[in-house]
Amino acid sequence: MPVPPPSSRVPGAGSPPGPGQALLLVDDHEDNLFALEHALTPLGRPVLRATSGEQALKTVLREPVATVVMDVVMPHIDGLQTLDYLHRLDQTRDLPVLLVTGTSRDNRLAQLAYKLGAAGILLKPLDPWALCCHVRTLADLYTRTPPTA
After folding, report:
1. For position 146, what pLDDT does the model report?
2. d(CA 137, CA 144)
3. 125-138, pLDDT tens digit by residue?
4. Order of strands across the sheet with 22-26?
5. Which residues form the signal peptide (predicted)?
6. Is the CB of residue 71 less than 8 Å from the CB of residue 79?
7. In the chain, is it the N or the C terminus that has fewer CB atoms within a 10 Å radius of its CB?
8. pLDDT value at position 58?
9. pLDDT for 102-121, tens place per residue?
10. Cβ contact 128:41 at 8 Å
């Protein structure tokens, strides 16, 4: 998948793709955000937090984000609705979103996440190293500078 130029990705953020781009963690429970942030510390990327889908949407339009890790079940705009909105915007269409859910394995949820463009879906409780592997790969692929001709 071709990487869009930085200016079309995150307006106002002004940062070219690169390893300094942040990870955005989205969950309406502070304890879950703390656990996610702690698990992703080994990646060495800046971490941004959002406690709602609305806050996540604002953040990705203001800050350079490499990957979003988002809970599915949240009040108001849930993770699936937020994902759908992100993938309808030109500047965030290719942004990888990894969904996290505490609900039991649900093939309908997985199918809907796939149709909406989720980069993956993980079930809680999360294995911290598996989470790091997924997020590192997604962030590195997204921020990779396209080859020059």
Report:
1. 58
2. 11
3. 999 999 999 999 99
4. 47-50, 22-26, 65-71, 97-101, 120-123
5. none
6. yes
7. C
8. 96
9. 876 778 999 999 999 999 99
10. no
Which two structure tokens, joined as six digits, stand for 9?
């990705």
Q: Which two three-digit tokens encode residue 61?
A: 């339009």
Other residues' Cβ atoms within 10 Å of the Cβ of residue 1: 6
Please count the other Cβ atoms lying within 10 Å of the Cβ belonging to residue 35. Answer: 18
Question: What is the identity of the amino acid at 4?
Answer: P
For position 34, what pLDDT does the model report? 97
